[in-house]
Amino acid sequence: MNPTSPILLLAEPAAAAPLVAAIAAQAPDLKLLPFSRSLDDATLAGIEVVLGWRFPPGLATRLPALRWVCAMAAGVDKLLVPELAPGVAVSRTVDPDQALGIAQYVVLMVLRQARGLPVYVAQQQARQWIRHPMAAARSRVLVLGWGEIGRECGRLLAALGFSVSGWRRDSGPLHDALADAEFVVDALPLTPQTEGLLDAAAFAAMPRGAYLVNIARGGHVVEPDLIAAIESGHLAGAALDVQAVEPMTADDPLWTVPGISITPHIAAQSSPDTVAAQFLAGLKALQAGQPLPNAVDRSRGY
Ligand code: OXD
Question: What's the Cα-to-Cα distance from 68 to each of 10, 50, 272, 290, rounded to whole Å?
Fold first, then answer.
């Protein structure tokens, strides 16, 4: 690798500022080049390493020397663009604190629903003091995706008394697993196989009153089907930290569906120090010709 070649940074400057500071603290001499549309082909031709979140359209074809794409996030779906040359290695961030934070969000949303909090919030607004019978929450939770994040969600939920099972692509038919789930937590990667997986048929396979928590990718959910399943009363609702279109537009129909809770992709972010340390360890491995940590299998998409 050419030691003078800068690292191309593909992220909004404001959002990337903490990561840039963390890299500067750990590797003061490393040159980071923020992407801008004005970069010329001669500059791009020298780029061997990209660090970022998503490829701007057409950029990958302008990087003939590219060897490694490092995601500053857990998911790589926005970096695995079809025009990425086959030999380019891709890796992602694996941050145990991010997994813990996401699992805490999942616990919050599952407990809130399981303990009937939305009912009491509505009652307070109406000044109604009415008690409803409520057993301890021991509901059955199915976690879709049993990687670092899915397992951490399962661990915390099981510790609270929920009955947890995990589903991955070799576990057997998804709809059979959904049939038993009072809560479904989506922690899958977004790949061509998982896109649109949660559609009308999947929602129909869930028992009446089931609840969805999505901390993975909005692209898994066929949103009009979800809205229909909730509005028909089949599903109790959904907590969506991710949506098909982010940022959501003001006229997105998800906003106003009773039973849907929206948060703006905040379940947990990876820590800049961890991303910086993992990126620098990857860079060292690349320079030494060693295997990259947290490498993604491009044929599987995660
Ligand atoms: C993600 C992340 O992949 O925030 O969504 O890390």
Answer: 13, 6, 19, 13
